[in-house]
Amino acid sequence: MLSEKLQKAFNEQINAELYSEYLYLAMKSFFEEAHLKGVANWFDVQVQEEHAHALGLYDYVHERGGRVELNAIAKPVLEGKTPVEIFEQVMRHEQLVTSKINALTDTAESEKDRAAVSFLDWYIKEQVEEEANVRHLLSSLKMIGEDQHALLMLDRELAARKYNAPVIG
Ligand code: OFO
Predict the structure, then answer these.
(1) Superfamily for domain range 4-159
(2) Measured from the CA of 126, which atom of ligand 1 is nearest?
(3) What local confidence, expressed as pLDDT, does residue 158 receive?
(4) DSSP H or E segment with residue 63
């Protein structure tokens, strides 16, 4: 059984993952409207991944005999007008999510819940991958700069990204 404190922290993280899904859906729309279908596809995969992250936590709360409480998801606000600015926001967002996962793990540790700490290990590793992917894309976009041809090449590359359902835990 999860402690009340840990259950609350898990529910907050479910909300944070659903917010990530919503934010990336807004970003997908930004790139659809900019006619960069490949970048939009990259965000589409990201949306599905965030949904899976939320459901992984949701299922875990139930598995531990806890109660899921769904709260309102905040309105996503884009903080940029160019691909570089949008990906800078993604980077900041993923760093924030990493700090939330770390804080959730700290709570599991302080509640002496070894099973939850072990479960959250997957999320800690996933955040390393998330940040690395975004860092790579952001640096590619910075190198591309104003080169429209290079941007279209990257767009074509990102069109090939496919969603693979993660095995969480
Ligand atoms: Fe759920 O990893 Fe991104 O936010």
Answers:
(1) Ferritin, core subunit, four-helix bundle (1.20.1260.10)
(2) 2
(3) 98
(4) helix 37-63
